[in-house]
Amino acid sequence: MFKLSDEGLKYVKNELTRYEVKQSAIIRCLYRAQDENGGWVSPDVISHLSAVMEIPSAQIEEVATFYTMFNKTPVGKNHIQVCVTLTCGMLGGRELCDSMMKEAGCKKTGDVSPDGLFTFSKVECLGSCDTAPMIQINRDPYTENLNTEKGLELVRKLRTAGGAGASGKGH
Amino acid sequence: MLKSVTSSGVAAPQATTGATSPQAKMVTISINGKEVEVKEGSTIIEAYYQSGLDIAHYCWHPGLSIAGVCRLCMVEIEGNPRLQIACNTTVVAGMKVNNSSAKVKDAVKWGLDFHLINHPLDCPICDQAGECGLQDQYMKYGQYDSEMGEQKVKKHKVVDLGPRVVLDSERCILCSRCVRFTDEVSKTHELGIFNRGDRAEIGTFEGKPLANNYSLNTVDICPVGALTSRDFRFRQRVWFLKNAETVCTGCSTGCNVKVYFNKEGLFRMKPVYNPNVNGHWMCDVGRDTYKFVNKEARLLEAKVVSSGKSQEMPAMELAKKLGATLRGHGTSAALVLTGSYSVEEYEAIVSYFKTDVGTKNIYHWINNPETFDSFDGLLFRGDKNPNTRGLLEVLKAQGISGSWKELVDGIGTGAIKTVVVAGPENQANFPDMKVKIAELSKVAKLVWLTSGKNAELDALTGDVALLPVKSYVEKAGSFVNHAGLRQQVDRVMTVVPGAVSLTELVDLMKEVGDAMTVKSTAATETVPAISANQIGQGRINNEFTLSRGVW
């Protein structure tokens, strides 16, 4: 059973005081809970938030399934989101994604690599077209101006680093 | 004496519409070039309904909050360059609204085309066909060749949302009526719209069943065939069913309902809007109260058991025999009444026992004393009789106040030799049925008036007579609900031709030897009277009722 940490609980309670309608706090609380749950929103997370926030679980599920930034399946320690919209796409975003996935051992996007370190997603524009192709790992600052070599290097580096994400900031 | 029964003190669920009280100020606006007076503060869509005009819509429902998601109720407002949605725009004096212009019709046509992008064309096997919002609007505003060439999105079909409701996601147009119903009316919050875009679907969190006692209202308000009733699915095409208004006899709330029937019997019940009783809704338990009326569950002929031999006979013959036995029987006879019958029937049989039989041994059978006063806060009451209040008023007026213990003691000592029981119509609501049968069958002669079959009654071996009586759809009469509102109902249909009402029974018993004449009230009852809108003095005509009801 998922339970928020004491700080997480404090955070959620504080969020609830910030809005006229408490449903407004769902997104921020889901983010927090997703971070504490290893990067994904499990049914447990929703049940727990529903109890803590006193909001029906169906309403939290509605928000969680609407936004793609909430992962509904487990992800690896490094959730690598590769931009494949126009500029990044034209400069090889998809190929970058495919070769990094191969290196990491993921068969398709959304899969967790066998070592549990990587999950890849192809995402829409992250607003950094001047530095294309680019990726975002978890919620860290962008990793930009990539090419296949740099991408593979990054995967290897992350693998040697083991558990922690690039900046250790969590999902 | 029933004049004292008033229609005051009614605590009714409030319809959550923007419409205000009858004293509300009126404003004049122009709809489709016609000047009309509507209540101040109404929305434009309510103004259309108040003036009896047609407007396309799916998501708006008078009993729910405004969602504004279907975009079909587009109207042109003079001075406003863009079309507006009528459901979320309030009228102001002098407003000029139009939904008959080419611009509006084109907008509705496109709205429909978008709704139908992913809607399967399975009308021939869809249960909603015949009462479907999409079909209706398409015939009125559509009739185009679709300009959508894409493959339809596949979604979940035949999803068991709960014990009574089945979901077909492909048919759903995401109007969110059902979601709003569980949020605002039943307040159980099971349903939500998950995912987004063309993958959005109605569902419950983690498949938790939609099992509240009001779940079938979501089927009623679903404008398409996405939510269907497991009970009614595939049983009849709706256009083969007639309907008539009556009152639900499932509990003492007395919800106004429509029963749907054909010559085979009843098939389903749906609520009818009455702001003083049930608003737009009714409970799931109430919807099952058509089942005991149908032939399979009924006692068809009278049956007499004496000295081990059982004999069937027409009810009329038995009634006359009973009359001969009971006349002047005196205080060794007793009458047991349940709250299932109409006020008129109570009056007839109680006065018959007082004057013709000569006894005041009349007792009220209370089926579930522990939960009698319970109430779920919305509609469902613990008193599972339609007319307990009417019975009590009649007994009070006739000065009768016998306790159940008196009856049991009387049977025990042998002071009471004959008991006539006007038994429950809906036996499922009488958990003490077995106990009471055991208690009462100790008497020397037992006469049980019942509309339904009962295995325990059939198994009795003493001196027993069973007489088939009419169910609530087979007779006219009035029922007094928990709040004292007297509602008059008409006869809907005949299911068991041989059954008699208590009033007819009394007339037959009185006319011993006088052949085959059923007079007075009984005579009026035989007039076929399938008419809508006759129930309830407290009934207020529904300004929102579409010609065919709000689907």
Structure description:
The complex is a heterodimer of chains A (171) and B (551). By secondary structure, chain A is mainly alpha-helical. In chain A, 43% of the residues lie in helices and 9% in strands. Chain B is an alpha+beta fold. In chain B, the strands form 6 sheets. Chain B has a 7-stranded mixed beta sheet, with helices on one face. Chain B has a 5-stranded mixed beta sheet with strand order 2-1-5-3-4, with helices on both faces. The longest helix of chain B is centred in the middle third of the chain and has 15 residues, at 343-357. Residues 1-20 and 513-551 of chain B have low confidence and may be disordered. Classes of the chains: A mainly alpha (171), B alpha+beta (551). The A-B interface holds A 43, 46-47, 56-59, 61-62, 65-66 and B 183, 189-196, 204-206, 208.
Descriptive key words:
heterodimer; A: 171 residues; mainly alpha; Glutaredoxin; 2 domains; three-stranded mixed beta sheet; 3 strands; elongated; B: 551 residues; alpha+beta; Ubiquitin-like (UB roll); Alpha-Beta Plaits; Rossmann fold; 3 domains; seven-stranded mixed beta sheet; five-stranded mixed beta sheet; 22 strands; disordered C terminus
